[in-house]
Specification:
Chain B: Pfam families: SBP_bac_8. The complex is a heterodimer of chains A (280) and B (377). With 280 residues, chain A is mostly helical. Chain A has helices at 6-38, 45-52, 54-87, 93-101, 108-119, 124-131, 145-169, 174-181, 186-214, 218-223, 231-241, 245-269, 272-277. Chain A has one domain (39-171, 198-277): MetI-like fold (Orthogonal Bundle), CATH 1.10.3720. Chain B folds into two domains: 7-151 and 285-329, D-Maltodextrin-Binding Protein, domain 2 (3-Layer(aba) Sandwich), CATH 3.40.190.10; 154-283 and 338-376, D-Maltodextrin-Binding Protein, domain 2. Helix content of chain B is 43%, strand content 16%. Chain B is built from 16 helices and eleven strands. The chains are: A mainly alpha (280), B alpha/beta (377).
C-alpha cells in the first residue's frame, strides 16, 4: 500500500463539506447567473433595466445604509458588552455569555414579531411611556427605518460580540498594567494600548455583521411597513409577484458582487488573512 | 383567499404530474393516484372515472372552500342527488391549460378571474357558457363573458377607524389624501391592483373616467405622484391578513382593503371603531369557467351554475365570508344590518367601478415599478 500523502489527507477531510458547497451552493448560484443573462431573452437586458431603474438604485442605497447603521450600532453596543465580560465579569462570565447566546435559540421570525408587539402604536413601549405621562400621542417606532434598525441591531448583536470577545479574552492585561505603571492615564492606556490590540476582533465583527445585514430579509419586511425595501425583499417581490426571474436573478448577482466588493475594499485597509484565519 | 397552503408549490407539482402523464411516463391511474396523494383531488380516487355525474368544482382553498362546499355544493346534492366536490387547489389559468392540453381533465368548474377567463377563451381552453340555460340577467352587468360568467364578487373599499380619527371619517379618496384634516396612517396594497384607481379618483376624476385617465402615461404618472405625496403616511399590506392586522392593532386609521377582510373586521373590532365606505370602490368579480372536455359534461355544469345563481344561497355566502352576491336579485334579501357591507347592494354598486383586467394586462408591470419607486425613493 502506498503512503497517503498529507495533501491527499487534507482533501479527504474537507471533501464532504466541499461537496455540499459545490452541489447545493456553487452550482445553484451559477444557475442564477445563467438565468440573469438568459431570461426573458439572452443578453444583459436585465442589468441595463436594473441600472436604469431608480427603484432598484434606491433599494440598494437603503440596503447599504441600513447595513452600515446596523453595523455601527452593533459595534458600539457589542464592544461595551464584550469589554465588560472580558475584563470585569469573571464570576458572571458564564451567565453573561448565556445571555448573549440566548437569542440564537429563538428564530429571527419570532424575534421580529416580538418587536412588533413591543414597538407598535399600542405596543408595550408606547403604552408604558403614555401611562408614565412622557408622551401624549404614540411614537412611530416601527413601520419605518427606525423600527428596522432597532430590530436588526438586536438580531445582529451576538455576531458582533462573539468575535470581539474571543479576541479580548486573548489579550493579556499586563500591557495595560505596564502602561498604567509608566504613568499613562486610564483613558490613554485604553486608547493606545488596549484598543489597538482589539482591532482584529472589531474588524471581524464588523465584517460579519455588515455582510449578514446586506442580505437581511425577514426583519425589514416585517418592520419596514413596505417602505424600507431592502434588496433581498425586492428580489422576492420580482420573483414571486411578477415571475420576473431574470431581473430577480440579476439583482441577486448584483448583491453578491457588491458584497464581494465590500470585502475587497476592506482587504485594502486591514489584513483579512489575520482577521479571518489567524486566531490566537 | 385566506389560506396558508403553499399553492405555488402544489400547483407546480400538479403541472409536473400533468406533464409526465402527457409524455406517457405515468399511467392514468398513476396520474390520479399522484394527484390524490398530493391532496389535490380529495375524496376523488378512481371512483372519479366510474361516476361521471360527479361534479368537481375548484376554488382557491381556505375557508372559502368549506363555505362553497356547504352553501352551493351540498345543497345541490340534496336537490339532485349528484355529488359535488370542492377542490381548493387554486385553478390558475396555467393549471387549467396544462390539464386541458394533457387530455386528462378532472375539473368541471373553476373559480377564475375576468382576465384569465378572457385569455383562456382566446386560447380555446374553455367552453362557452350556455346562456339558454344560465340566465344572463341574474349576474351583474359586465360579468357575463362568452366563456365565463360571474359567480361572486369582492371590492377594494375605503375602510376607516372612526375612533382613531375622532369621529371625523373620510368619505372619499380625496379625503384620504387630505392629511391635514384626517391625520393618521393609511394602508394600501403592496401592488397597484385597486390602488391606482383610488389615487386617480383622489384627483377628482369621476368614477366613469378612471380607466380612461389611467389609459395615458400622464394619467399613470399622476396617480403615482399622489402616492409619492402621501407616502410618509403609508404602511403597505402584502396579504389580506396583514391588512386585517393593521386595523386590529390600530396601526392604521384608514385603508384601501378587500371587502372580504372588512367583513371580518366589522365583527372583530369594537363597536364604533370600524367603518366601510364603498364610495370609489373597485369591484373584482370571480368568474366561473368550464374547462374543455370536462368529465361531468357541459350540461351538468350549466345546471350547477344555475343552482349557484339562487339569490338565497348567495346571501348565505355573503353572511359567511363576505363574498358579494353576483345576482342583483340577492340584494333585497340581504339582512339590513349586513347591507352596508354588501359590495353589490344597489347603493354600493352605484358608487363603484368594475376592475378592468385589460388595463392591468397592458400596464401593470411598468406601473408596479413606478409604484415601488414612489413609495421608497
Amino acid at each position: 500500500m502506498t503512503q497517503i500523502t498529507d495533501n491527499f489527507r487534507y482533501w479527504i477531510l474537507i471533501m464532504p463539506a466541499l461537496a455540499i458547497m459545490i452541489i447545493f451552493y456553487i452550482y445553484p448560484v451559477l444557475g442564477i447567473w445563467q438565468i440573469s443573462v438568459t431570461e426573458p431573452e439572452a443578453g444583459f437586458g436585465n442589468y441595463v433595466r436594473m441600472v436604469d431603474s431608480s427603484a432598484v438604485r434606491t433599494s440598494f442605497l437603503i440596503t447599504f445604509r441600513v447595513a452600515a447603521i446596523t453595523t455601527v450600532g452593533c459595534l458600539i453596543l457589542g464592544y461595551i458588552v464584550a469589554y465588560t465580560i472580558a475584563n470585569f465579569a469573571s464570576r458572571l462570565t458564564p451567565l453573561m455569555l448565556a445571555l448573549v447566546l440566548l437569542p440564537f435559540w429563538v428564530s429571527v421570525l419570532i424575534r421580529s414579531f416580538s418587536w412588533i408587539v413591543l414597538l407598535g402604536r399600542s405596543g408595550l413601549v408606547n403604552d408604558t411611556l403614555r401611562d408614565m405621562g412622557f408622551i401624549d400621542a404614540p411614537l412611530r417606532l416601527m413601520h419605518n427605518e427606525l423600527g428596522v434598525l432597532i430590530a436588526m441591531i438586536h438580531v445582529m448583536l451576538p455576531f458582533a460580540i462573539l468575535p470581539m470577545l474571543a479576541n479580548m479574552r486573548g489579550i493579556s492585561d499586563t500591557y495595560v498594567k505596564a502602561a498604567r505603571g509608566l504613568g499613562a492615564s486610564e483613558w490613554t492606556a485604553f486608547r493606545s494600548v488596549y484598543l489597538p490590540q482589539t482591532l482584529p476582533g472589531v474588524m471581524s465583527g464588523v465584517l460579519l455583521v455588515f455582510v449578514l445585514a446586506l442580505g437581511f430579509y425577514i426583519t425589514p419586511a416585517l418592520l419596514g411597513g413596505g417602505r424600507v425595501l431592502m434588496i433581498s425583499e425586492y428580489i422576492t417581490y420580482q420573483i414571486q409577484e411578477f415571475l420576473a426571474w431574470g431581473l430577480g436573478s440579476a439583482l441577486s448577482v448584483a448583491l453578491l458582487i457588491a458584497t464581494a466588493l465590500v470585502l475587497l475594499i476592506a482587504a485594502r485597509f486591514v489584513n483579512l488573512r489575520s482577521i479571518l484565519l489567524d486566531r490566537k | 383567499m385566506t389560506d396558508t397552503t403553499d399553492f405555488e408549490a402544489k400547483q407546480d407539482i400538479v403541472e409536473i404530474a400533468v406533464e409526465r402523464y402527457k409524455q406517457g411516463r405515468l399511467t392514468r391511474r398513476g396520474f390520479l393516484a399522484a394527484l390524490g396523494a398530493l391532496g389535490v383531488l380529495p375524496m376523488l380516487g378512481d371512483t372519479a372515472m366510474a361516476q361521471p355525474t360527479e361534479i368537481v368544482v375548484v376554488n382557491w382553498g381556505g375557508q372559502a372552500k368549506d363555505v362553497l362546499q356547504e352553501v352551493l355544493c351540498d345543497t345541490y346534492t340534496e336537490a339532485t342527488g349528484i355529488p359535488v366536490v370542492v377542490d381548493g387547489s387554486g385553478p390558475s389559468a396555467g393549471k387549467i391549460r396544462a390539464m386541458v392540453e394533457s387530455g386528462a381533465v378532472v375539473w368541471d368548474l373553476c373559480d377564475s378571474g375576468a382576465g384569465s377567463a378572457i385569455i383562456l377563451e382566446q386560447q380555446g381552453i374553455t367552453q362557452p357558457i350556455d346562456y339558454d340555460v344560465v340566465d344572463k340577467s341574474k349576474v351583474l352587468e359586465g360579468t357575463a363573458y362568452n366563456n365565463g360568467v360571474g359567480n361572486y364578487l369582492y371590492s377594494y373599499v375605503l375602510a376607516t377607524n372612526p375612533k382613531m380619527l375622532g369621529g371625523n371619517v373620510p368619505q372619499s379618496w380625496e379625503d384620504v389624501w387630505n392629511v391635514a384634516d384626517f391625520p393618521g396612517m393609511r394602508t394600501f396594497r403592496k401592488s397597484v391592483r385597486g390602488m391606482l384607481e383610488s389615487a386617480t379618483m383622489a384627483q377628482g376624476v369621476p368614477l366613469a373616467e378612471v380607466y380612461e385617465a389611467l389609459g395615458t402615461e400622464d394619467g399613470i404618472q399622476a396617480a403615482i405622484d399622489k402616492f409619492r405625496q402621501l407616502r410618509e403616511n403609508i404602511i403597505v399590506w402584502g396579504s389580506g391578513s396583514e391588512s386585517q392586522n393593521l386595523f386590529l392593532q390600530e396601526e392604521v386609521a384608514i385603508g384601501n382593503i378587500w371587502s372580504t377582510r372588512a367583513h371580518l373586521l366589522k365583527d372583530q373590532m369594537p363597536q364604533g371603531t370600524f367603518n366601510v365606505s364603498f364610495n370609489g370602490g373597485v369591484i373584482a368579480p370571480g368568474i366561473w369557467v368550464v374547462p374543455k372536455d370536462n368529465p361531468a359534461g357541459k350540461d351538468e355544469v350549466m345546471k350547477f351554475i344555475v343552482h349557484g345563481q339562487n339569490p338565497e344561497l348567495q346571501v348565505k355566502w355573503l353572511e359567511m365570508i363576505g363574498a358579494g352576491p353576483i345576482n342583483p336579485e340577492a340584494a333585497a334579501m340581504v339582512p339590513p344590518e349586513l347591507a352596508p357591507y354588501n359590495p353589490s347592494s344597489p347603493e354600493n354598486l352605484a358608487t363603484q367601478i368594475l376592475y378592468k383586467d385589460e388595463w392591468y394586462a397592458k400596464n401593470q408591470t411598468s406601473a408596479e415599478e413606478l409604484y415601488v419607486d414612489a413609495l421608497i425613493n
